[in-house]
Design brief:
The complex is a heterodimer of chains A (102) and B (660).
Chain A (H helix, E strand, L loop, with lengths): L4 H21 L4 H26 L3 H31 L13
Chain B lengths: L1 H21 L5 H24 L5 E11 L2 E9 L1 H24 L6 H20 L3 H19 L6 H32 L4 H5 L7 H19 L7 H4 L5 H10 L4 H8 L1 H4 L3 H22 L5 H21 L3 H28 L12 H4 L1 H15 L5 H16 L1 H30 L46 H5 L1 H10 L14 H6 L13 H26 L3 H11 L4 H5 L4 H48 L6 H23 L2
Antiparallel strand pairs in B: 1-2
Helix pairs in contact in B: 1-2, 1-4, 2-3, 2-4, 3-4, 3-10, 3-15, 4-5, 5-6, 5-10, 6-8, 8-11, 8-13, 10-15, 11-14, 13-14, 13-19, 14-15, 14-18, 14-19, 15-17, 15-18, 15-21, 17-19, 17-21, 18-19, 18-23, 19-23
Chain lengths: 102, 660
């Protein structure tokens, strides 16, 4: 083991909170929010891979591949919806949408 | 005997139920015939019971209330007192029922009227015949209810309904005391049977007997309109006149006297109670007589005279002259029913005018009413040799025989009252029937409640919402049955003295002999014969003086002047007109503080306290609910921040947990 788990987890956390910060800050653009979600997901993937390496188990890597498949599906659907949304409302600013208000 | 008693009670009840259920669907005549028929049949049964009477009987019909050791069966007790009262009640009520047929001939609510009248007779008979106190109480409350419903018979006028409520509430005060006494007596002796309780007098501590006696006196005061609960009776005149005659003069209001006489063997053992009873009666008699002198509503004069006469009876009970009290009760029932029925005739003939100052000269127009009314007035005034003369003197003789400063004072008060009675009675007779009718009813105006310094509208009862005949000609016509009903009462009133002639005439009076065997009735010191003769002469002189004074004042040339002065309001007349302002006193002492307290609890306690606390709590919760409701913006951002906040909290928690 060249890189210690703590370092990986530190990087993980950094990535995750970077993604989260971006998510919160970039609400004006739905696409950028999707990008930030990717960053957060990647942080999680990294944690899985790191853990898998640390304990010598393949489960974590398996999960990472799952997440990859999942994100690709998610992104393709989400982008389609963004396009549809932009066509209808001429905006991708999430603060403009409040139809879900109870 | 059992059969007779059952019929005496059940016939009026059946008649009442019949009229209540079917009276409206059947022709009017049927309801009237049934109502009168049942009462006269009950009278016939009472006569048969009298014929077959040979000593007190107790008849039990079945169980009514029974729980553990408490037993109150439907048991009747027929002794000389209840028998004579039953005869009187059925007879007088029978006549009044007949009279009602004429009096109520234009009233659409005849079914309700006769049903209540019949049920009243039933309840009164239950009261008189009951062997145990709970059954007596049932009758007691029954007559109270019927009285309430009949005072407010023309309930569409708010004033009548208020009078009914006032009567109900005032008597309820006394009834509460009576109820407490019943429970206490049961607790003391384990029995509610009247005959049993009357033998317990010596076993119960004297102080308890005194308290019980005072409680019973309070109950009797409520029902019999004695001070301080007398205020309801003058207002009760709002009901139809036959009702006033039947309930508020002849029968129901004497229930208190009956109760005291019934329980006398128990409560009479206490000197304090006897003195309290006598004092109540004496003062009430005087009080009501003074009030009656200034009234100007015909029925209110009679109402106050009723209070006054019942005061005499209560005085008689207090003096131990029970036979005298019962004697006066009987003659009073005859002549007061007669006076009320006569007044009803006059009022009907004058199209429901009740102000005596607007009457006059009726002697020539209504001779069939004048002569019986005069007979009743002579009895009421205690004119020598009438029934009222002998019965009143029997009571006064009983008081005189007691001796002592208290009873001496009460005797004096009673004699003054006798004089006042004679005066106000003949004031009424002369003003109504003699002279000339003064300023007849102004067209369209009520003609009532005018003049007099303190003549608030409440002092003159409003005429009932009766279909007034439009003819205003002095064609005074009455249904024949109304005037015919007066004749037997007049004869009985005048000859009532035969029932119990004074013993100095050589024979024991009939009632003395008849009632003497009842426990308590034989007692009471007898006045010496010479003393009784002197007393009767004094009473006769006082009665004649009152008559003379009224004659001097209200006939001939001085009449107009006297009437004008009284109408302008004599000094102090307002005080008497309003019954010594007892209503105002109670208003200031009880009603207004009660209203104030009630308003305080309503405004401060209920609305501000309870409602306020609940409203405040509800507002607080609503505001609390508003806080998270603000987070439901429907925007993604809000959820995201929430998510981030949650993550931070979880992380912080983990850090806090893992830190050493």
């Amino acid at each position: 083991m060249i890189v210690p788990l703590e370092h990986i987890l530190l990087l993980d956390g950094l990535l995750f909170f970077l993604g989260m910060g971006g998510l919160l800050a970039w609400r004006a653009n739905l696409i950028m929010m999707l990008v930030c979600i990717e960053v957060m997901l990647n942080a999680v993937m990294l944690a899985f891979v790191g853990g898998s390496a640390r304990w010598g188990s393949a489960d974590g890597q398996l999960f990472a591949i799952f997440i990859m498949a999942l994100t690709s599906a998610e992104v393709s659907l989400a982008l389609a919806m963004v396009v549809y949304l932009h066509r209808r409302r001429k905006t991708v600013d999430t603060d403009q949408f409040s139809e879900m208000k109870g | 005997m059992k059969l007779y008693l059952a019929f005496i009670l059940l016939l009026p009840l059946m008649g009442g139920i019949f009229n209540a259920l079917l009276g409206r669907t059947l022709p009017r005549r049927v309801g009237e015939v049934v109502a009168c028929g049942v009462i006269w049949s009950a009278f016939a049964c009472a006569v048969l019971a009298f014929a077959g009477f040979n000593g007190p009987v107790r008849v039990e019909f079945g169980s009514w209330l029974a729980a553990f050791e408490f037993q109150a069966p439907i048991a009747l007790y027929l002794d000389q007192l209840s028998l004579s009262l039953t005869l009187m009640i059925t007879f007088v009520c029978g006549l009044i029922h007949l009279y009602s047929v004429g009096y109520m001939q234009d009233d659409p609510a005849h079914a309700r009227y006769f049903a209540l009248l019949n049920i009243f007779v039933f309840a009164m008979l239950v009261l008189v015949l009951a062997e145990n106190l709970p059954l007596l109480y049932l009758g007691w409350e029954g007559v109270g209810f019927c009285s309430y419903a009949l005072i407010g018979f023309w309930y569409t006028e708010e004033q009548n309904a208020t009078a009914g409520r006032k009567a109900f509430i005032t008597t309820r005060i006394g009834d509460t005391a009576f109820g407490i006494a019943i429970v206490w007596m049961y607790q003391l002796s384990g029995s509610v049977s009247i005959t049993h309780l009357n033998t317990m007098g010596t076993l119960i501590p004297a102080a308890v007997v005194t308290t019980l006696g005072l409680l019973l006196l309070a109950g009797a005061s409520g029902k019999s309109a004695q001070l301080p609960l007398s205020v309801w009776l003058p207002d009760a005149m709002a009901g139809p006149t036959p009702v006033s005659a039947q309930i508020h003069a002849a029968t129901m209001v004497t229930a208190g006297v009956y109760l005291l006489a019934r329980m006398f063997p128990l409560i009479g053992g206490s000197g304090t109670v006897r003195a309290a009873i006598a004092l109540t009666g004496g003062i009430t008699a005087f009080y009501a007589a003074t009030c009656a002198c200034c009234q100007r509503d015909l029925k209110r004069i009679l109402a106050y005279s009723t209070i006054s006469q019942i005061g005499y009876m209560v005085l008689g009970v207090g003096a131990g002259a029970l036979t005298g009290a019962a004697f006066h009760l009987l003659t009073h029932a005859f002549f007061k029913a007669l006076l009320f029925l006569g007044a009803g005739c006059a009022i009907t003939a004058l199209h429901h005018r009740q102000d005596i100052f607007r009457m006059g000269g009726l002697r020539a127009k209504l001779p069939a009413v004048y002569w019986p009314f005069l007979a009743g007035a002579l009895c009421l005034a205690g004119f020598p040799l009438t029934g009222g003369f002998f019965s009143k003197d029997a009571i006064l003789a009983g008081v005189a025989a007691q001796g002592g400063p208290l009873y001496g004072g009460l005797l004096l008060l009673g004699l003054i009252t006798a004089f006042l009675t004679s005066f106000y009675t003949f004031r009424m007779v002369f003003v109504v029937f003699h002279g000339e009718q003064k300023n007849p009813l102004p067209p369209g105006g009520g003609g009532l409640g005018r003049g007099g310094s303190d003549n608030s509208a409440a002092n003159i009862l409003h005429p009932p919402p009766h279909p007034l005949p439009s003819r205003e000609g002095e064609h005074l016509e009455l249904p024949k049955i109304m005037t015919l009903a007066l004749v037997p009462l007049a004869l009985l009133g005048l000859c009532g003295g035969m029932l119990n002639l004074p013993s100095y005439l050589g024979h024991q009076g009939i009632l003395d002999g008849f009632l003497g065997s009842i426990p308590g009735f034989g007692g009471g010191e007898k006045a010496s014969q010479g003393g009784e003769i002197v007393l009767q002469i004094v009473a006769a002189i006082l009665s004649l003086t009152g008559l003379g004074l009224a004659w001097f004042r209200y006939t001939g040339s001085r009449r107009a002047e006297a009437l004008a002065r009284e109408e302008a309001g004599l000094p102090g007349a307002g005080f008497l007109l309003n019954g010594w302002r007892l209503d105002n006193l109670y208003g200031a002492l009880i009603i207004n503080p009660f209203k104030y307290v009630a308003r305080f609890f309503w405004k401060q306690g209920d609305e501000a306290g309870i409602d306020g606390a609940l409203d405040g709590l509800a507002r607080f919760i609503a505001r609390l609910g508003g806080l998270p409701a603000g987070w439901c913006t429907g925007r993604v951002a809000t959820s995201l921040f929430g998510l981030a906040g949650g993550v931070c909290v979880v992380l912080a928690y983990l850090v806090w947990v893992t830190l050493p």
